[in-house]
Amino acid sequence: MRILLTNDDGIHAPGLRALRRELLTLGEVLVVAPASEQSAAGHSVTIFSPVLVQEVADENNGLLGWAVEGRPADCVKLALRMLLPWQPDLIVSGLNAGSNAGINVLYSGTVGAAIEGSFFKRTSIACSLEMPPSGRPDYAEGARHARAVVGRIVEQCTEEGSLFNINIPDLSRGEPKGVAVLPQNTASYTEWYDKRTDPRGRVYFWIGPDFTCHSPVPDTDVTGLAERLITVTPLQFNMTRTDQLAVMKGWLW
Fold first, then answer.
1. What is the pLDDT of residues 58-98, one digit of tens each?
2. Among residues 156, 168, 120, which one has the least CA distance to residue 4?
């Protein structure tokens, strides 16, 4: 199996390196990832500036892949159209530092890269690890769990272009209780901004780091993570409200 690995935390992120080691047990892996962190980049792409690309060596001085001065979706586009010597059977994005559940899926560069891979009719999987309240996350163990779920998906999924979102719960709370296939939570998160003044007297706002969903929809990815379950959500990028199409065709235009 040939695997393209990408992320939004950057090519030197420990989560990506840990997941690469695990994915090498499934097949050949090449990395095309951002040169710097691109968290919350969503599905944005670079249009008005050149995208610089540089080869990066692995720990054995072999080819790890390419660092891209662009967004996660840029990485997938360039990988499939320009950089890779072969077309991948599987595209994996992660292992992200922090969960990508609920409406955060819409902001996530990790998920955005996987969506781009799905555009190209490749099975694409976003993988994220919930962060502990303090201390360093166990990326090695999180990557082991992610690889196991990725392997199960590959064994059983036959539809080309399938898109999945995996979230590993905070491992400092203990081993996950199992794997649950759950829908995306649609309840809003509580956000806050810190109002500040710069040295020139100008007011600016800086969004806080805590995104909490106080009233999540039951039996969704957010509640599954809280129950220490590995959550798997099948996604789609067609955002059309098909139930509304027939209604709107009856409107006066």
1. 988 999 999 999 999 999 999 999 999 999 999 999 999 99
2. 120
In this structure, the number of other CB atoms found within 10 A of the CB of residue 172 comes to 14
Q: Is 170:142 a contact under the CB 8 Å cutoff?
A: no
In the prediction, which pLDDT does 129 show? Answer: 98
Strand-pairing partners, residue 203, are 197
Torsion of CA 35, 89, 105, 151, to 10 degrees: -110
Alpha carbon distances (Å) from 56 to 30, 33, 150, 173, 233: 10, 10, 25, 35, 32
What is the rounded distance in angstroms from the CA atom of residue 18 to the CA atom of residue 137?
12
How far does the chain reach from its first CA to its final CA, in angstroms?
52
Beta strands in the chain (DSSP E): 2-6, 28-34, 53-57, 63-68, 90-97, 123-129, 163-168, 179-181, 193-197, 203-207, 230-235
| φ, ψ (nearest 5 deg) of residue 123 | -60, 125
> Which domains does the chain possess?
2-188+218-238 (3.40.1210.10)
CA dist., res. 83 & res. 64, Å (int): 12
Q: In the chain, which stretches have pLDDT less than 70?
A: none
Helix (H, G, I), strand (E, B) or coil at 238: coil
Of 172, 145, 158, the C-alpha closest to 231 is 145
pLDDT at residue number 174: 94
d(CA 8, CA 35): 9
Q: How many residues does the chain have?
A: 253
